[in-house]
Design a protein that fits this description.
Helix content of chain B: 25-40%
Number of helices of chain B: 15
Helix content of chain A: under 10%
Structural class of chain B: alpha/beta
CATH architecture of the largest domain in chain B: 3-Layer(bba) Sandwich
Strand content of chain B: 15-25%
Radius of gyration of chain B: 23 Å
Structural class of chain A: mainly beta
Largest interface: A-B, 55 and 65 residues
Shape of chain B: globular
CATH topology of the largest domain in chain B: FAD/NAD(P)-binding domain
Distance between the termini of chain B: 51 Å
Strand content of chain A: 25-35%
Strand order of the largest sheet of chain A: 3-2-8-6-7
Largest sheet of chain A: 5 strands, mixed
Number of domains of chain B: 3
Oligomer: heterodimer
Order of helices and strands of chain A: EEEHEEEEE
Number of strands of chain A: 8
């Protein structure tokens, strides 16, 4: 069996995941599960979490089945989180200063 | 107030429909779930973000400008969860104006009423289940285009792109341009399928040129393009680490995968309109006449939600639907003259769009290849084996299978598992027509109970005294 190995670059967290050449608003602070994070104001929450290296957004019916953003258009409900206490789909939620995000 | 026309969905079809209606003097309202009109292909970046323009963003901006100048009332950030009126009235009563119930961006509930309803609900992506598809890092091809184009975000640093249709190469090219590594593009289609689609694309030399440029970029960057192949499995711990193609594991931290587009028929199903199964148009679609009329009076469907024909064909079908609605409402004397241009535009654009839609049609072999223990319904944790056991126990269509297994009863309401599950049921009961579809139910989208309840308080319900024993 062949393996196409990953180069070291994949582990290089400095390699930007936000695409260059786009002008973005200034960063604001928000929190995810108690962890302080920064993202441009108005950036999509699901996208900002990917940029922060947070992929696992919750668990499905069993612990072996994590949930993560899948459709990015409000259909799949896999990115469901609590934003300031209310259930919200991360892929439809813009970031604002001081927003408190927790698992659903 | 009762509008002449309500348009549900602000993609290319809905934007063109609402603009056409307003330009012709109709009282029209457009309801859109996103913060700005545009739909998925022409999705606007978030407020305050400036993305370098490309062909799609220019087409989207032009549609948005026309809509703005038309004076149509546009309500964005509104989640429509309820439909009513029309034929959904008590027996032996007259059809009522249509009613759309929605949540405003501030969480307040509101309703609009209209004499005619044009549904431009678009599509969602078909992703046929495979082992490991629930791992974080696996996401849709359409999701990848939204991330890349609207949000300016890479889905990962080393990204495998897989599935079917033109989106495959669009996403791969965009990933390369944005600085990601693309170790492989895994195309379900053989090269000969693309060769067969070429004549239909001749009417759109711009698309053809774009496609050839993408292929050239893949070659120049040394991207492995594997034709006639599928992702057999994805694996990893906390998140995706590698995917299996044939007998080769490819390391990656994201997999963008899509197996075509499925028309969103929640609303036409809720209105009990007639549907037909058309695999080449994406699946179940409402039965329409040549002017986008559904079987329910004063109900119309346009854009990819009426059958996948692509973003270029959508505006013309939206205009056709609105012109038919205005004619049916007695507001358009010269219908034949008005419809000629959009009918011609639609026929031309639908030819290229139809060829692409055929490449994105469901491939039953993908479903047949799913191992029994693979989860099909992510919301409820239902596996292929459980669905087949239900069929063996007598579940003879989609509704019965749903009741036996809970597959499709979770928060995605069957949008994610529906195509895989329906194909599995079809294998047992003799085809998709027999398998049917899950009955359309409200709410159309998940909605918080407190938003629905508003000021209602259970304590206000008068409780009669209990009868003496």
């Amino acid at each position: 069996m062949d393996v196409i190995a990953k180069p070291d670059r994949m582990k290089d967290v400095a390699h930007p995941i936000r695409i260059a050449g786009i002008s973005r608003p200034a960063d604001v602070a928000f929190s995810f599960e108690g962890r302080s994070l920064l993202a441009p104001e108005g950036e999509n929450l699901a996208a900002a979490l990917i940029a922060a290296g947070i992929r696992r957004l919750g668990e499905g019916q069993d612990a072996a089945r994590p949930r993560a953003a899948l459709c990015m258009m409000g259909v799949c409900q896999q990115c469901l989180l609590r934003v300031d206490g209310r259930l919200a789909q991360a892929c439809l939620t813009p970031i604002y200063a001081g927003m408190v995000v927790t698992a659903a | 107030m009762i509008y002449d026309i309500a348009v549900l969905g602000g993609g290319p079809a809905g934007m063109a429909a609402a603009a056409e209606a307003a330009q012709r003097g109709a009282r029209v309202v457009l309801l859109e779930e996103s913060a700005a009109p545009g739909g998925q292909v022409y999705r606007a970046p978030p407020a305050g973000f400036t993305v370098p323009p490309d062909a799609d963003s220019r087409a989207g901006d032009a549609l948005r400008a026309t809509l703005r100048q038309s004076g149509a009332e546009v309500r964005t950030g509104c989640r429509v969860w309820g439909v009513g009126g029309g034929p959904l009235v008590p027996m032996d009563t007259q059809a009522a104006p249509f009613r759309l119930d929605a949540l405003a961006p501030d969480g307040q509930s509101f309703a609009v009423q209209a004499r005619a309803l044009v549904l431009c609900a678009g599509t969602h992506e078909r992703i046929i289940a495979f082992p490991g598809w629930t791992l974080p890092g696996v996401l849709g091809l359409a999701a990848a285009t939204i991330l890349l184009k609207a949000h300016g975000m890479l889905p990962g640093r080393r990204v495998v792109v897989a599935g079917a249709g033109p989106l495959l190469y669009a996403v791969a090219a965009k990933l390369l341009k944005a600085g990601a590594e693309v170790p492989a593009v895994v195309d379900l289609a053989h090269s000969r399928e693309w060769a067969r689609a070429l004549p239909a694309l001749a009417v759109r030399p711009d698309l053809l040129a774009r496609g050839l440029l993408w292929r050239a970029q893949m070659l120049a960057r040394g991207v492995r393009v594997v034709s006639g192949a599928r992702i057999a499995a994805a694996a990893g711990g906390e998140a995706l680490e590698r995917v299996l193609v044939g007998d080769t594991w490819i390391d990656c931290d994201a997999l963008c995968i899509g197996h075509g587009l499925v028309p969103a028929t929640e609303a036409t199903r809720a209105f009990r309109a007639a549907h037909r199964y058309a695999a080449e148009a994406g699946g179940w679609v409402p039965v329409l006449d040549g002017d986008q009329r559904c079987s329910v009076p004063f109900l119309y469907a346009a854009g990819d939600g009426a059958g996948v024909r692509g973003a270029a064909a959508a505006p013309a079908s939206g205009r056709l639907a609105v012109l038919a609605a205005l004619h049916d409402l007695g507001m358009l004397p010269d219908h034949a003259g008005a419809r000629a241009a959009p009918a011609r535009d639609f026929a031309r654009a639908a030819k290229a769009g139809g060829a692409m839609a055929r490449m994105m049609a469901l491939r039953p072999a993908l479903v047949q290849a799913i191992p029994p223990e693979t989860i099909v319904c992510r919301c409820e944790g239902v596996t292929r084996a459980e669905i087949e056991a239900a069929c063996a126990d007598g579940a003879a269509d989609m509704n019965q299978m749903k009741q036996f297994t809970r597959c499709g009863m979770g928060p995605c309401q069957g949008r994610l598992c529906g195509e895989t599950a329906a194909e599995l049921v079809a294998m047992h009961c003799g085809g998709r027509e027999r398998a049917g579809f899950a009955t359309g139910r409200l709410p159309l989208r998940p909605v918080a109970m407190d938003a629905l309840l508003g000021d209602f308080d259970y304590a206000d319900i008068p409780v009669p005294n209990a009868a003496p024993i």
